[in-house]
Design brief:
The chain has one domain. The chain is of the alpha+beta class. The chain is built from 1 helix and 4 strands. The radius of gyration is 22 Å and the shape is elongated. The strands form 2 sheets. A two-stranded antiparallel sheet has the order 1-2. Strands 3-4 form a two-stranded antiparallel sheet.
């Protein structure tokens, strides 16, 4: 009975330790991916174009894939490219000034119509609105 108790404690501690190690590794990978994405966005904004992670000025980033593209649209309607499951797309409602790194707001930021379509039932849509300081 004592041996079974000791074995249970040892196995529990080792399981907890390995689980914590896996969680820590996943969190580190998540932070690296976020940093890579933010770097791509910054470079794309500076170059006012498109960049690919792992090439050009982002050649030091390895182990990740992705691109960032800066596009301007003067049209009142906009359609994003197809967004994969659990993917995201960021667009700014204004004009980006590369020199000052600022976004000038649109004329009427209170009048925004957003439509979306999903091929699957029960889609989820997450919207974050960031209002600049006045």
């Amino acid at each position: 009975m004592l041996l079974a108790t000791v074995m249970t404690i040892v196995l529990s501690v080792s399981f907890k330790s390995s689980t914590d190690s896996q969680i820590t590794k996943l969190e580190e990978e998540s932070q690296k991916a976020l940093t890579a994405a933010e770097s791509a966005i910054e470079v794309a904004l500076k170059e006012n174009g498109s960049v690919t992670i792992g090439s050009g000025s982002l050649s030091t980033i390895t182990g990740f894939e992705g691109t960032a593209t800066i596009a301007s649209s003067s049209d009142k309607t906009f359609t994003t490219p197809i967004i994969q499951k659990d993917g995201s797309y960021t667009f700014y409602l204004g004009n980006y000034d590369v020199q000052n790194k600022t976004i000038t707001p649109v004329v009427d930021p209170n009048n925004l119509t957003l439509c979306f379509e999903s091929a699957t039932p029960n889609p989820a849509l997450e919207i974050t609105l960031v209002k600049p300081e006045e």
